[in-house]
Amino acid sequence: MKSLYIRITLIMITFFGALCWGCEETIQLDLEQAPPVVVVDALLTDSMAYNHVRLSRSVDFYYEGRAPVITNAEVQVQDNEGNTYPYFYQEEDSLYRPSPPFAGEVGKVYTLNVTIDGQTITATDTLRFIAAIDSLRWRESESFFLEPKDDDYIYEVLTYAREPKETEDFYLFKFYRNDTIERFDSETGVFYSDDIGLGEEINDLSGPSLYSLEDTARFEMYSLTPTAFKYYFDLDQLINSDGGMFSGIPANPASNIEGANAVGFFQVSAISAEEIVVGDPETKRR
User: Fold this and answer.
1) Which of 57, 62, 182, 286 could lock 209 by a disulfide, CB 3.0 to 4.6 Å apart?
2) Arithmetic mean of pLDDT over the chain
3) Residue range 144-174, pLDDT digits in tens
4) What burial class does residue 165 get, using C-beta atoms within 10 Å of its C-beta: 0-12 exposed, 13-18 middle, 19+ buried?
């Protein structure tokens, strides 16, 4: 994390105002640091490939490098029918993953249990239904908001899906180009919405970037509970606050994590995903 500096310029002006001297002094603030806390980043879905738990410890303001990963935790997930799924640490990606793998089921409630050196952390979330994506289509960009990187990146990818109006729904969207997540102006790299913002259908929903021919475009849509939606809303507000007079006081996002000295979120979601190759005549928007 970058150090915080205050640059103080001392300007001495002589009585005659004819001569000025300028100098710069760098001061590193002596900030009072809070004790480290456990940071939980956990995802459980109805697809086996996505399920993981990442555990780390917070670091002080001047720390440089990757946050320390916790490798000695006992991790398990339990559903509301009493089934228990153990997780084990994987060196190759620094994540805890279930063994044997399992997929969540729509309608079930899942509780994450983590024990670290005698400390217990829990979190609970529900796996809600999500409608399938109808299709993805590509076309030469007509967007006023996307600027081509060069002459090759001139295609936008559009998403189509139905939004059931009989239920109140919340979503998290992720856009990928060739396995790399694409970002809007937000540093979070994701787009979240409720069904009020989407209307009855998702039509011509464009991602945050343009594509070139033969790029693979992937779109993922996650169901969220109201608590998870609030978490992403708070996270977005926190990361993108400009610190101005109308900005709120910085605070941790809303969370479902319970336990002393722990922050983060346990997200439980159903996933709908589609991908296409830009340039395929079968998926060109007519």
Assistant:
1) 182
2) 82
3) 566 666 677 889 999 999 888 788 899 999 9
4) exposed
What is residue 2's predicted lDDT score, i.e. its pLDDT? 34
What does the alpha-carbon distance between residue 70 and residue 54 come to, in Å, rounded to a whole number? 8
By the 10 Å C-beta count (0-12 exposed, 13-18 middle, 19+ buried), 264 is classed as: buried
Residue 236 CA to its chain's centroid (Å): 9
Give the tokens for residue 193.
């919405």
Determine contact, residues 70/37, Cβ cutoff 8 Å: no
Pick the closest to residue 268 from 240, 233, 238, 226 (CA basis).
226
Does pTM surpass 0.85?
no
pLDDT at 127 over 90: yes
What gap in Å lies between CA 35 and CA 282, rounded to an integer?
56
Instruction: From the options 1.10.8, 2.60.40, 3.40.50, 3.40.960, give the CATH code of 133-227+271-283.
Output: 2.60.40
CA distance 46 to 96: 17
